[in-house]
Amino acid sequence: MSVTPKPATGTDTSKARLRLWLRMLKSARGVEAELRERLRTEFSSTLPRFDVMAALERYENGLKMSALSGVLRVSNGNVTGIVDRLAEDGLVVRVQVPGDRRATLVRLTRKGQQEFARQAAAHELWIDELLSDFGAEEATQLAARFEAVTHREEGQ
After folding, report:
1. Backbone angles phi, psi at 97, to 5 degrees
2. Is the four-CA dihedral 56, 58, 64, 67 of positive or negative sign?
3. What is the pLDDT of residues 81-116, one digit of tens each?
4. 7/152 Cα distance (integer angstroms)
5. I need a labelling partner for 68 at 20 to 30 A (CA). Which of 17, 57, 60, 145 fits?
6. Has domain 44-133 been given CATH number 3.90.870.10?
7. Tell me, what DSSP letter sits at residue 61?
8. Could you tell me the maximum CA-CA distance found in the chain, to the nearest angstrom?
9. Distance (Å, rounded) from C-alpha 73 to C-alpha 98?
10. Are 139 and 131 contacting, i.e. CB atoms less than 8 angstroms apart?
11. Where are the domains of the chain?
12. b/e for 93-105, b at 16 or more Cβ within 10 A?
């Protein structure tokens, strides 16, 4: 007697998607933990500091604190302490916005640009190593699929 496989149901599909999400989350958290550790040990830095410098690197003229918080999707309070420490280390500078006494822009200094370049190069190598099981084509396809999910969620 042969057994015919049971067709997939909506419940099977939803369970498979739930397992996918949980595995993605576990993988992302593992990669993030490894990045945090490597930034700490190799640069005496943190992932939030790296994220702030990465955001500022994309905006040569700098960003207001509120815009920086928006780019990073965190509260102003979270960013303020990080910016304070980056400024103490000479990696960022606060610049008064002309015509607005209350507003300041945050910009990377030359030292900050150089330090970010060093960290970004290492970060890219680490990601390449940590995701080495994925070929270029597969990585490109998966990135496009996740981008589509992101855009679908942002459009709702």
Report:
1. -80, 125
2. negative
3. 999 999 999 999 999 888 888 888 999 999 999 999
4. 28
5. 145
6. no
7. T
8. 84
9. 26
10. yes
11. 44-133
12. beeeeeeeeeebb
